[in-house]
Recover the amino acids of this structure.
């Protein structure tokens, strides 16, 4: 196990199971793109190609496939599927976007969640997909077009001081902040994920995370929902960020119903305690559901 | 992610520009880095050479039999010279965005060329100029190869290429047409226009 993960021994129950799970490679999953196909057709096409594709227990539109290269199959060529990690499908589920709404995806590239949100909206209404990194945005555009998304507008800005000026609306119905992070949760997929890990990076990135989440709260209508997610275990990037934003903005953390097993957010780390409502956030560890690691919290903007 | 994400369609193979410029010289020039909504009809156009929504809808209908109602809830935009985009719903006229919906059609050339992504999204509604390929042909098409196909006796020009997926089998007859992309048919040859980043060896 990577030594950085030792710092989580105090907060992860069954640490040995956690440490063992982190070492196992992650199985491949693909999300069925309901804009262009349905689960039955995708499964039949995989079966045609001799590839088993089983719906996961908790998300019927997420298929576990027994191939390392789902990208070179007919369902992929047709834009019927998108290779996506299981945990990565959780933030849109928590966000629950509705057809016809206007949604902001603040840190959107390469668009796995943007395209999932668009599909959940039946490709109606608007998803504004933003990212600061132009190269990653071109990957997002490629994915959105391949998957047949027509309700996305793509912008290239710093989400921390995002202006809604070029858009037809002056507030969003909901927003997703799928923040840049240290990426510890992706170790099963990418064993090199922590090669450049440092405490200094934690401090920098948590500043960005806080600023983007604050901007998302400000830009969302009263009563609207904002989902915050990362793929890291670091409390500095998770509960600490929530705690600061609760102080600075008019919002609260709400209960969320996620279809998999999770652990509550932690209320204390490194001698600092947090607002007790951070417990409503969800920590997802690899040994709980045989997935990558993840963090997701749902906030509601105050009136 | 693949290495090549650009869906910038390669230069159109039978491009000849300047087909139908309007006679009025009081039209503005196209500003190529901005998204502009297409005017509803040719009579309401304010920019030289820009097709109208009505023309685009009739093009889909005449060429492929795709009913205009298909795009009832979509707007069309031009950015770049003749490059059209299709957006669900409407929006403000934005100057500083990178994309609005998806690229749909290359106009301002003699033969308008739909994008691979657009026909994969809307092409299942086509009733004509669709060429059905067998498995081996479909594989060559997806790999971006050109191939001789003598049996086609319909129109030349841009066709929608399709195959059956899942394939129809004796005990399970649920084969359904799946759209592959856009082929250019000339002189007994079907040229695949699948952009590099979307080609696959299947
Ligand atoms: C975890 S990734 C997003 C993954 C994406 N949501 C998906 O599902 O495919 C975080 C993204 O945040 C972007 N980013 C970092 N800082 C940003 C900022 N200040 N404003 C906007 N985007 C930013 C990065 O370029 C990166 O693409």
């Amino acid at each position: 196990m990577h030594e950085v993960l030792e710092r989580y021994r105090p907060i992860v129950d069954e640490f040995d199971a956690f440490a063992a799970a982190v070492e196992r490679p992650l199985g491949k999953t693909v999300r069925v793109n309901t804009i262009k196909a349905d689960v039955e057709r995708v499964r039949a096409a995989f079966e045609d190609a001799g590839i088993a594709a089983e719906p996961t227990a908790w998300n019927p539109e997420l298929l576990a496939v027994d191939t390392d290269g789902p990208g070179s199959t007919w369902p992929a060529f047709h834009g019927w599927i998108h290779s996506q990690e299981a945990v990565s499908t959780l933030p849109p589920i928590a966000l629950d976007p509705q057809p016809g709404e206007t949604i902001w995806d603040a840190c959107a590239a390469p668009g796995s969640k943007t395209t999932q949100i668009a599909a959940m909206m039946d490709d109606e209404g608007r998803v504004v997909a933003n990212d600061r990194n132009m190269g990653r945005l071109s990957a997002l555009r490629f994915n959105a077009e391949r998957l047949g998304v027509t309700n996305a507008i793509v912008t290239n800005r710093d989400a921390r001081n995002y202006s809604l000026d070029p858009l037809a609306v002056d507030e969003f119905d909901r927003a997703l902040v799928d923040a840049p992070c240290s990426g510890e949760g992706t170790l099963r997929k990418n064993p090199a994920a922590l090669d450049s890990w440092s405490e200094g990076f934690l401090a920098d990135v948590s500043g960005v995370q806080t600023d983007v989440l604050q901007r998302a709260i400000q830009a969302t209508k009263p009563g609207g929902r904002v989902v915050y997610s990362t793929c890291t275990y670091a409390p500095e990037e998770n509960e600490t960020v929530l705690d600061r934003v609760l102080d600075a903005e008019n919002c609260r953390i709400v209960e969320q119903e996620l279809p998999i097993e999770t652990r509550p957010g932690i209320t204390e780390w490194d001698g600092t305690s947090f607002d007790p409502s951070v417990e409503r956030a969800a920590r997802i560890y690899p040994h709980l559901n045989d997935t990558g690691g993840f963090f997701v919290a749902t906030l509601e903007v105050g009136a | 992610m693949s290495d090549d994400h650009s869906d910038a369609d390669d230069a159109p193979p039978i491009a000849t520009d300047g087909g139908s410029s309007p006679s009025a010289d009081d039209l503005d020039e196209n500003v190529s880095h901005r998204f502009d909504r297409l005017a509803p009809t040719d009579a309401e156009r304010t920019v030289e050479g820009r097709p109208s929504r009505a023309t685009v809808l009739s093009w889909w209908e005449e060429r492929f039999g795709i009913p205009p109602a298909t795009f009832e809830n979509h707007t069309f935009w031009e950015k770049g010279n003749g490059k059209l985009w299709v957006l669900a719903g409407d929006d403000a006229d934005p100057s500083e965005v990178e994309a609005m919906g998806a690229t749909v059609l290359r106009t301002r050339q003699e033969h308008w060329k739909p994008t691979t992504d657009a026909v994969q999204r809307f092409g299942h509604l086509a009733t004509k100029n669709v060429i059905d390929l067998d498995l081996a042909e479909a594989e060559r098409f997806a790999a971006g190869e050109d191939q001789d196909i003598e049996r086609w006796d319909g129109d030349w020009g841009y066709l929608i290429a399709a195959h059956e997926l899942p394939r129809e089998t004796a005990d399970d007859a649920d084969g359904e047409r799946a759209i592959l992309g856009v082929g250019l048919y000339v002189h007994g040859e079907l040229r695949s226009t699948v952009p590099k980043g979307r080609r696959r060896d299947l």
